[in-house]
């Protein structure tokens, strides 16, 4: 299931509602490829907006673009290798189009700036995740023939004042960033190093963006952050400085639960999702808010990484197995029918068979609806790399990962079979990949449903009777436009 995190999209403008009002009319073209987490895809939309003001229009034609940008991911070695291959390809294309410039954005920019610019000389520009507003200056530099770099991490930047240009959009679903960076310092993870300290975005600008999307016909919005439950706005500033805020600021602060209810109330016909939740920061308040509003989707992505207390501690995950079970029990009690998904890492340093069995038994307890499962990949600069030996042999990691994936498949099937005979509300997103006669959409639980197109259109909520399923997909017959969401 790794593809959902390591997948790639190409910037294309087909069928997208784009606000071109701020653009100098498309004199130049930019081709953007994004890798990694949803936040990177969302960031590329901020970049497209900043570049539009400089006269760049997004294009799906790489060969003739004036500028190629690749928004990169460092989360696992494999993600970096994929990007490196693409950079080789871009350099080959550049030979046929000498005026073309190539830039690296995102997490690899942060990590590998010297290598890219000085040692290998394979790119013209390197821009870190907090420096996109500097793109106009950096572009001026490269257009004058100099290399350009800005990888400074910020304590304030949230891009709250930039209206993203939706790339590769179906006009139905959109991402809205609510926090940047992460303060959690899980020992295996590069994100705190590549994306910096955690900051929350002003709720006013979040609600403005949501309202704008609603007016443009979008039906589903995913609020994004590395750790959304940690969202806290008290007038600006880092989360860790909240204790120093004035009494008034503390009293009027907006936390994630409040932000969710404000969003749900502002747009009752928009479905809200959020990602990612960290077990140590998810509160019961958030669960009650989810239960209260029908338009907050009944789905929680709740990475756990391991079922072993010993490994959780070594990972610096600040919860125990028991506390995780307590949270799961609360979810089941407060939001019946809520889907839950996991991220899991197999073969973290020192992981024994017993630890691995703890992971499998934790999965048996939760019976996750979906999962994203990975073999541990040592990342330079992380605490695990500095302090722990990557001592689980590759073939053991692979075998444990395969066992985790097999178990997840069985649980996913158990969950999809639970929908057989039921009627679910589906938001139609696109044509099914397998058939031109079928639509594909999702339930509130995030489960994919495929059904005959009939008279229905993309963006409509439709009641579908479920008749068949695989472990990943529900199949059914549409009954009519839904009054649910
Ligand atoms: N909080 C983030 C997590 C980003 S990383 C979010 O918004 O999703 C996504 C997942 O990648 C993690 O949950 C973890 O399961 C996996 N991952 C992170 N670092 C890893 C590493 N060094 N090796 C293997 N998997 C890793
Ligand atoms: Fe990474 Fe842990 Fe934050 S996985 S993004 S350090 S919550």
Report on the structure:
The protein has 485 residues and is of the alpha/beta class. It has 3 domains: 28-150, Rossmann fold; 173-417, pyruvate-formate lyase- activating enzyme, CATH 3.80.30; 423-481, Nucleic acid-binding proteins (OB fold (Dihydrolipoamide Acetyltransferase, E2P), Beta Barrel). It has helices at 3-6, 38-52, 77-96, 107-119, 135-143, 191-195, 203-215, 247-251, 256-266, 284-292, 309-314, 321-334, 353-366, 383-387, 394-417; strands spanning 8-10, 28-35, 56-58, 67-72, 101-106, 125-127, 148-150, 173-177, 179-180, 199-200, 220-224, 232-233, 254-255, 271-275, 299-301, 339-346, 370-375, 423-431, 438-442, 448-452, 461-469, 473-481. Strands 1, 2, 3, 4, 5, 6 and 7 form a 7-stranded mixed beta sheet that branches. Strands 18-19-20-22-21 form a 5-stranded mixed β-barrel. A hairpin with a 6-residue loop joins β18 (423-431) and β19 (438-442). α7 packs parallel to α9 (256-266) and α10 (284-292) packs parallel to α12. The longest helix is centred in the C-terminal third of the chain and has 24 residues, at 394-417. The radius of gyration is 22 Å and the shape is globular. Mean pLDDT is 93; it is low at 1-24. Residues 182, 184-186, 189, 191-192, 226-227, 278 line the site of FE3-S4 cluster (F3S). The site of S-adenosyl-L-homocysteine has 17 residues, from β16.
Shape annotation? globular
The CATH class of the largest domain is identified as Alpha Beta
Low-confidence stretches: 1-24
What is the CATH topology assignment of the largest domain? pyruvate-formate lyase- activating enzyme
Number of helices: 15
Rounded average pLDDT? 93
- Strand tally: 22
Instruction: Name the ligand types.
Output: S-adenosyl-L-homocysteine, FE3-S4 cluster
By secondary-structure content and strand pairing, the structural class works out as: alpha/beta
């Amino acid at each position: 299931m790794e593809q959902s995190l390591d997948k790639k999209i190409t910037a294309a403008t087909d069928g997208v509602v784009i606000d071109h009002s701020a653009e100098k009319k498309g004199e130049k073209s930019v081709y953007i490829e994004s890798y990694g987490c949803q936040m990177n895809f969302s960031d590329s939309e901020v970049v497209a907006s900043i570049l539009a003001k400089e006269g760049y229009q997004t294009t799906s034609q790489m060969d003739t673009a004036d500028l190629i940008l690749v928004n990169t991911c460092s989360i696992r070695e494999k993600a970096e290798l994929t990007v490196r291959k693409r950079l080789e390809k871009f350099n080959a294309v550049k030979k046929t189009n000498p005026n073309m410039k190539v830039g690296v954005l995102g997490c690899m920019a942060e990590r590998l700036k010297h290598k890219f610019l000085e040692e290998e000389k394979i790119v013209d520009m390197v821009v870190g995740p907090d420096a996109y507003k500097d793109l106009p200056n950096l572009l001026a530099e490269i257009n004058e023939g100099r290399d350009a770099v800005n990888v400074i991490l910020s304590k304030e930047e949230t891009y709250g004042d930039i209206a993203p240009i939706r790339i590769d959009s179906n006009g139905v679903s959109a991402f809205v960033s609510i926090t940047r960076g992460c303060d959690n310092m899980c020992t295996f993870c590069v994100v705190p190093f590549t994306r910096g300290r955690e900051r929350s975005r002003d709720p006013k600008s979040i609600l403005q963006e949501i309202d704008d999307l609603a007016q443009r016909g979008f039906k589903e919005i995913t609020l994004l952050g590395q750790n959304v439950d940690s969202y806290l706005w008290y007038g600006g500033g880092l989360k860790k400085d909240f204790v120093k805020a004035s009494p008034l600021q503390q009293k009027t602060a907006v936390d994630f639960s409040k932000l969710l209810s404000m969003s749900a109330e502002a747009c009752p016909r928009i479905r809200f999702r959020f990602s990612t939740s960290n077990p140590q920061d998810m509160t019961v308040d958030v669960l009650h808010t989810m239960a209260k509003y029908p338009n907050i989707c009944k789905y929680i992505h709740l990475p756990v990484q391991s079922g072993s207390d010993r490994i959780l501690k070594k990972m610096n995950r600040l919860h125990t197995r028991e506390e995780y079970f307590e949270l799961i029990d609360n979810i089941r009690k407060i939001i019946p029918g809520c889907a839950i998904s996991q991220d899991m890492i197999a073969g973290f340093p020192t992981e024994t068979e017993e630890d691995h069995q703890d992971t499998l038994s934790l999965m048996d307890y939760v019976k996750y609806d979906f999962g994203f499962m990975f073999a541990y990949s040592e990342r330079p600069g992380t605490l695990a790399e500095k302090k722990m030996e990557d001592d689980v042999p590759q073939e053991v990691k692979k075998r444990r990962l395969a066992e985790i994936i097999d178990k997840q498949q069985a649980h996913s099937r158990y969950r999809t079979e639970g929908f057989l005979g039921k009627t679910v509300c589906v938001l139609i997103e696109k044509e099914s990949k397998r058939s031109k006669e079928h639509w594909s959409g999702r339930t509130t639980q995030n489960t994919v449903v495929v059904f005959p197109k009939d008279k229905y259109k993309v963006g409509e909520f439709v009641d579908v009777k479920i008749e068949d399923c695989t472990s990943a997909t529900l199949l059914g017959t549409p009954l009519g436009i839904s009054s649910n969401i």
